[in-house]
Amino acid sequence: MKNRFIYLISIIYLITATTLFAQTKRYEVKSAVINYKITGSGSMMGMPTKLSGNKTLYFKNNGAIELSKEQRVQMIMGQEEKEDEIVKFDNGVIYSVDEEEKVIYKQTISKEQETIYFNQDGEKGLKSLGGVKVGSEKIAGYKCDIWDLSGVSMCIYKGIPLKIKTETMGIIETQIATKVQLNISIDENKFKLPNYPIRTIKDIMEENQKQMEDLSPEQQKMMEEMMKSMGEMFDPEK
């Protein structure tokens, strides 16, 4: 069974990362299908961990509507755990599918967050968030700019991350594009979500607040710090 603490951490990271590009015109490309390879390794809470997988990203209307499908295999102390994840961004609303629980979690970006992020533009927006351009790289045939943003390294082409490198809980993970198709027609079915019940992030926060009692002091501290760093980024009522 999926570790609920790790799942909540992944949801928090996912939402935070998505808002970095939550602009009115998120990408300088109308539509795209991008395939990524996922690799990673490290020590999570003292446990040797390796991960591998792949992700496919679909978007249209310059990113106003976007859906990603991810499959990964995580090896923790020799034990294999497979995870499938679907995330959809639809005009300021984020939907995250938990395939194991057969439920969809919904989160709406707050009005304050819209004001901050939806008015940003390209490099100006990244710089306002503390981003620093540190170089360039060619990935899948496209030259992209490498940005360092709060410990996250991203290589961006026309607003699209072609490579993302992060370190979370001792695990260094890299997602790198292997195939990029731009300005193409995409089947509407690619943006459909499973027919699962929809719940809000507020629901899972309340559930995990109860489960916090079962976490170690280190895990509780980590969770509290992550939540504090997020501040009031999102509207918990939606």
Describe this structure in words.
This is DUF4412 domain-containing protein. This protein has 238 residues and is an alpha+beta fold. The chain has a single domain, classed as outer membrane lipoprotein receptor (LolB), chain A, CATH 2.50.20. 23% of the residues lie in helices and 46% in strands. The chain is built from 5 helices and 12 strands. It has helices at 4-19, 111-117, 122-128, 201-211, 217-230, and strands at residues 32-44, 47-60, 65-76, 79-90, 93-98, 103-108, 132-139, 142-149, 152-157, 160-168, 171-182, 198-200. The protein has a 12-stranded mixed sheet with strand order 7-8-9-10-11-1-2-3-4-5-6-12. A hairpin with a 2-residue loop joins strand 7 (132-139) and strand 8 (142-149). The longest helix is centred in the N-terminal third of the chain and has 16 residues, at 4-19. The chain is globular, with a radius of gyration of 17 Å. The two termini are 28 Å apart. Mean pLDDT is 78; it is low at 1-9, 15-23, 114-120 and 230-238.
Strand order of the largest sheet: 7-8-9-10-11-1-2-3-4-5-6-12
Looking at the overall shape, the CATH architecture is Clam
Taking Cα atoms only, what radius of gyration do you get, to the nearest Å?
17 Å
The largest sheet, given as strand count, sense and whether it forms a barrel, is: 12 strands, mixed
The poorly predicted ranges are: 1-9, 15-23, 114-120, 230-238
Number of strands: 12
**What is the top-level CATH class?**
Mainly Beta
Protein name: DUF4412 domain-containing protein
Organism: Arcobacter arenosus
